[in-house]
Design brief:
- There is one protein chain.
- This protein has 293 residues and is an all-alpha fold.
- It has 2 domains: 1-39 and 212-293, no CATH class; 50-85 and 102-194, no CATH class.
- The protein is built from 15 helices and no strands.
- Residues 1-19 and 90-96 have low confidence and may be disordered.
């Protein structure tokens, strides 16, 4: 990790080499900024590795969005034409009751809303429109996560929409996304943002993942869902070789132990923190069973 980045992060957090980690003020925004930097590393690597794929992907996405918009407008036009025909029929007042959307029309509407999201519409507006269509929207949006490494801003916007859909409709799409090397990062963040304990069980198989950056996302999201399994996952991450990752892990653990770091210092190496890490493991052995009850 670039030393200048680490030093800048330390200054931003009010840390100096002479201050202990527990003295450093931590804000949610600062943690999110570092989390995003760490969590999106693999995605950004893929982005810079294949510039041609990026350009082609953007072009294909825009074409698909335009086609989807045209198809959706065709549906709206046919609906208006039917209403006009009813009015011209002269058989009393037309029936203005909207028929239930077919599966085909629902999928078209999902595509239309996804196109709006790509074109800059607010995620809150798109989420509101997609909530009644969540069973169709969730798989489509999760599939988008697998390719949106080409556009990190779009990835975060899709995450915001997914986080507002019912947890019951997300379980299977999230499970599928967690198997993908790119989509699993935003998928884990979505679970944490929703905060649903049942949905968080989709993360449990990944608590021992060899990638400790991803392990942090899994552990912190589980903790946000009040799932105690996230605590030992975060304790594992205290052994990371990366300072930023260690900082994120201890920042997530600290509130759980009554605002204590148990003498863990993220600026020290895992070897230097050996006694503190052991103290965390012992703390969990004593307190884990009653956490979040």
């Amino acid at each position: 990790m670039n030393r200048s980045i680490i030093l800048l992060a330390a200054v931003a957090l009010g840390c100096t080499p002479g201050r202990r980690a527990e003295d450093a003020p931590v804000t949610k925004g600062e943690i999110l900024a570092l989390e995003t930097k760490v969590g999106d590393t693999n995605a950004k690597a893929n982005l810079f590795a294949n510039d041609l794929t990026e350009k082609m992907g953007r072009l294909e996405s825009r074409i698909a969005a335009l086609e989807s918009t045209v198809k959706t407008q065709d549906v709206h036009i046919r609906t208006l034409e039917d209403k006009i025909a009813q009015l011209r029929g002269g058989a009393g007042q037309p029936d203005v009751t909207q028929p239930p959307m077919t599966a085909e029309d629902s999928i078209k509407e999902v595509d239309n809303q996804l196109a709006r999201l790509r074109n800059g519409f607010r995620p809150e507006e798109v989420a509101k429109a997609l909530q009644p269509l969540a069973k169709y929207a969730a798989p489509k949006l999760c599939e988008t996560l697998k390719t949106s490494f080409r556009d990190i801003d779009l990835m975060r916007r899709v995450e915001q929409v997914l986080a507002k859909l019912p947890a019951s409709d997300l379980k299977i799409p999230i499970e599928d996304s967690l198997k993908d090397r790119v989509a699993r990062y935003p998928a884990a963040r979505v679970v944490g943002e929703i905060g649903n304990k049942e949905l968080s069980r989709t993360l449990e198989p990944y608590t021992s993942d060899a990638d400790l950056d991803f392990g942090y996302l899994v552990g912190s999201s589980l903790v946000r869902c009040r799932n105690r399994v996230g605590v030992p996952a975060l304790i594992r991450v205290l052994r990371s070789e990366d300072k930023n990752t260690r900082f994120l892990a201890i920042s997530a653990l600290r509130p759980i132990a009554g605002d204590s770091t148990l003498n863990y210092d993220f600026q020290k190496t895992p070897e230097q923190n050996g006694a503190a890490i052991k103290a965390w493991e012992e703390w969990y052995d004593q307190n884990g069973a009653k956490l979040f009850d």
